[in-house]
Design goal:
Layout (H helix, E strand, L loop, with lengths): L7 E5 L11 E6 L3 E9 L4 E4 L2 E4 L5 E2 L15 E9 L4 E9 L6 E6 L1 E4 L4 E4 L2 E4 L17 E6 L8 E2 L6 E2 L3
Parallel strand pairs: 5-8, 6-8, 12-14
Antiparallel strand pairs: 1-2, 3-4, 3-7, 3-9, 4-5, 7-8, 9-13, 10-11, 11-12, 13-15
């Protein structure tokens, strides 16, 4: 269900110029990052999840289960972050933060950087992602630094790396 602060994407028909209306054909929503809080920095109004820096503001909505807002977050707690990615800074500006229950996978929508085809790793923020278990045919043809992807990750790091647990990467529009 839609909640205050969620980011939505609406695909719609062309605008009818006589009524200035369009018909929604699909509405998508979902967290940009979901996983464990790494650290909280009250001085900079930010926290990290999966190596991604997430900034909060006075307009960020915190789920009722997260009493105290940013100060109520603790390292290791699981959260879903609805946000906008600032391509210039590589940081997320949170619009909504929700507590999440235990899960079998984490999720990240981010930008590929420091791609290492030999090691089969890349970075997003400061998080290192291993895609060693993904078949080459399941990787995007345009897999390169700067590509925006959505990837599902296992819940445990191996050798300091988050492990891509899905059989494919989704390429996101720029």
């Amino acid at each position: 269900a839609l909640k205050m602060g969620m980011v939505v994407e609406v695909q719609a028909s062309a605008i009818d110029q006589s009524t200035l209306r369009a018909t929604a054909q699909s509405v998508r929503f979902g967290a940009e990052v979901s996983g464990p809080v790494g650290s909280v920095d009250l001085a900079t109004s930010s926290f990290t999840v999966l190596g991604q820096t997430v900034s909060v503001s006075n307009s960020t909505v915190f789920d009722n289960s997260l009493s105290g807002g940013l100060a109520g977050l603790a390292a290791g707690s699981l959260v879903e972050v609805h946000a906008h990615l600032n391509a210039a800074t590589g940081q997320y500006q949170a619009t909504r933060v929700e507590a999440m229950s235990a899960t079998s996978r984490y999720k990240l929508r981010g930008t590929v950087s420091a791609l290492d085809a030999a090691a089969k790793t890349f970075q997003s923020g400061t998080g290192v992602i291993s895609y060693a278990g993904i078949a080459a045919t399941d990787l995007p043809a345009s897999f390169a630094d700067g590509l925006k992807v959505r990837v599902k990750l296992g819940t445990a790091q191996i050798n300091g790396q988050w492990v891509a647990g899905s059989s494919r990467f989704d390429v996101l529009d720029p």
